Structure formats: structure tokens, C-alpha cells
Amino acid sequence: MGSRSLALLQRSLAGIGLQQVSSLMLINLLLAAVAFGKDILTATYFGTSQAADALLLGFFLPDLIGNNLLGMAIGVAGVPLFATMAVQGQGAEVRRQLRRMVLVLGGVTAVLCVGLALFHEPILAWLGDGLDGEVLALTRTLFLLLLPSMIFFTLCLPVSAALQAVERFHAPALAPVLFNGVWLAALLVLTVIGTPLEKGAVVTGGGILLGSVGMLLWVWRAWRQVPQQGLLAPRTASTASTASTASTTGTTTHPTITNAAKGSFPRTFFPFLILLLNTQLVYVIERKLASGLESGTIAGLQYAFRLAQFPNWVFVAAVTTVLLPAVSRAFAARDPLALRQAMKRALWAALWITVPIALVLSVAREPIVSLLFQHGTFDEVSLKLTSGILAGYAWAIVGQAVTAVCLRYGMAVGRMGRPVLISFVALAVTALADIWLTARLGSAGLGIGAACGATVNGVLMLLFVRSDLHAMGKRGDAA
Known about the structure:
By secondary structure, the protein is mainly alpha-helical. The protein contains 18 helices and no strands. The longest helix is centred in the N-terminal third of the chain and has 38 residues, at 50-87. The radius of gyration is 22 Å and the shape is globular.
């Protein structure tokens, strides 16, 4: 990336919040280092063995439901809810709503855990269709071991949302570092001792469970350190006056504002949950197809996915974390110009980051995969399998980055209908492309199918934001 490109990227980030984005990028780089260290050790220790398939398949549903569906939906949709209350000095209401969320989510996920445990046989038989009996037996053991992690993931993310809403970004960003660090430590011990793969998979599962507990304890500790009063410094004279009045009178509840915030939450949460469900259905379809291909395809798909997601996890995630409250403030202030500028800068930043990295990952995929993963049991067959999937998967990150930025716009302005419809279209395109391409290209078709679906999703989301901003500008306000 040349100096002119870097200058343009810097200006784009400065318009969003350069200092906050930069600090989050540094934490995300630390997370990437720990996560890739874990992935490298996983590849070195397990390779693309049947034990690797069992571990990843056993963890798939607890991670999908607890981390990527319920927890993520609450974690992102909760930010506008908590932020609205916090800037009005409603600290007690923020804490009350958070406690209520935690109790409800804990009960829901506990019931889901019991149901999944009772019906794990048919679920795993369907999900792992094509795996032999020994691998399915190991998958069953790991699945039951990892089920409780679903509860800890789900409870962790609403606390992270509350921390982000009061601009405590660092503690929630560091929580995944702790999780991956515990997983990495377990793999280090197994590698040094030379534990057999089947037993090592169970020990690794225990490390994953322990890491999920550590994440929850970490964010709760950070939340307990937030002052009872003055959760967020007021940004304007009007909010300063409101907060001052609340502090003087001892009143922290503003019924009109609180009820409006509560009313907006389900309109964001449920559409976002559907959208996440569609995204996770794509991953289910990919792993379902992978289980019917050559041995190790599930593991190879996971390695390629994690490598391709590097720029989104490190850079784009930092941009979108800061973007959501920024866009929300611009919309609340009835400032369409600020709204357009924030979106333009965020989109340019996402493209300047992801397009060059996608090109490098696609063109130099074999040497990159070889350098990072080709150690121990990760042999030449594993290299060809993983790099073949990565060839297409690398280009999926561009569409995913654009979608992530545009989705924050839809959440901030309360227009989630079209993003949900677009996600159904992207799901259908990805599923059809995966089925058609794997029948002709084998495992490499999974990567190309992901790129097709992500590109369609990104283009349609970009058109949605463009048309909505244009209509907003013609109306002359952000109502």
C-alpha cells in the first residue's frame, strides 16, 4: 500500500475516531497473534486429522448458538440501548437492564443446552453425515463437554455491550485474547507432552470450556469497576444539563427516553438475530458439505476461514465498533451530512484494508499457508486442501467488510428490514454456489461459493445504504 493510499486510509479513520480505532486495532492485532498462534499449533498438533474434524464439529454448535447467534445479537443490539441510557445519566437503569438480560439469557441458554444434550445423537448424525463411527463417537464426547460454553459465551457479550456503550472498549476487546490464550496454553502442553490426538482433542475441549469461563469473569470484573454514577461523560450542553439535573436530584430514570430505548431494542435485536442466523446457516451448509468430501476438509475449511478473516477481525472490527455509536449520534442529532461522511469514511477504510489483503492471500495462498501451518502432521495434502479453499475464501472478506459497515448504518437508523431480506438472498446464492461448485471442484468450491455470496451481500447492502442516504438527504433530516 503506497504512501498516498495510507494517507487516504488515515483520513478516513480520523473521521470516525482515529485514536479509539487505532487502540482497538492494536488489541485486535494482539488477538490475531494469539489466535493465529493457536491455529498454527492446532494445525501442527492435529493437522487435518479425524480428531481435528471431531473437535471442530463438536465445538461448532455451542460456538454458533452461544457466541455467534444469541450472544452476538444481544451484544451488538444492546449497544444503542445502553448508550441511550448512559448519555442521559441513567446509570441505575443501565445496570437494571443488564441484570435482566443476563437472567433471561442464562435461562434460555440453559434450556437450549438441556435440549441439545437430549437430542445430540440425531443432531450430530445429521451434521456429521459422512464421518465414520469412531469420529462420531469422539465428536459426541466433545460436543457434550463443550455445551456449557454456550452459556458462558451468551452471558459474556451483553456485558461487553454495556462496556462499549459507556466507551470502555478495551476490556471487551481483550476478552477474546484471554479465551484464545487459554486454548493456546492447552495446545502447548499437549504438543510438548506428545499426547495422542484423540485424548488431546478432549483436553483441548476442556481448555476451550475454561477459556469461555475466563472471558465471562474478565468482562464482569471490568463492569464492576465502572462507577455507579457518571457512566459516560456528556457530549453536548443539553446532555450535560440533563446528566447534571439527574445527579442533583438523585434521579437516574427518564421514562420517556428509557421507554423509547427499550422499544427500539427489539426492532434491532430480532432482525439482527435473523441476519446472524442466516450467516450461521451458511457455515452449517459449508460444514455439512465438507463432511461428505475427503477426510480433513472440515479442518482445512476452518484454517482457510480463520486466515481469510484476519483483516476483518483486526481492522474492520475496530472500525465498526467505533462506527456504530458515531452513526447513532449523527442520526439522533438529525445530521444527514455527518451520517453520510461517517459512512463514506468507514466504507473507504474497509476497502483500502481488505482489497489489497484479499489479493495477497489469493495469489500467495500456498506459501502463506505453508509458512503458517505446514508443521508436524500438517502435510502436503493438508497444504493443497487448505490453500485450495483459501483461493476463493480470500475474496469473501471484501464483501463481508462492506456488509459489516453497512449493517451498522441499518442498526443505527432503525432500518433493518432490507438488510434481513438481503441476507436471505446472500444465503441462497452461497448455498447454491457451494452445492454446484463442490460437485465440480471439490473442497475448493467452498471458498469460491463463499466469495460469491459475500460479494452479492456487499453490493446489495451498499445499494441499500446509498439509496437510503439519498432519500434522507432529499427529506432534509434524519427522521
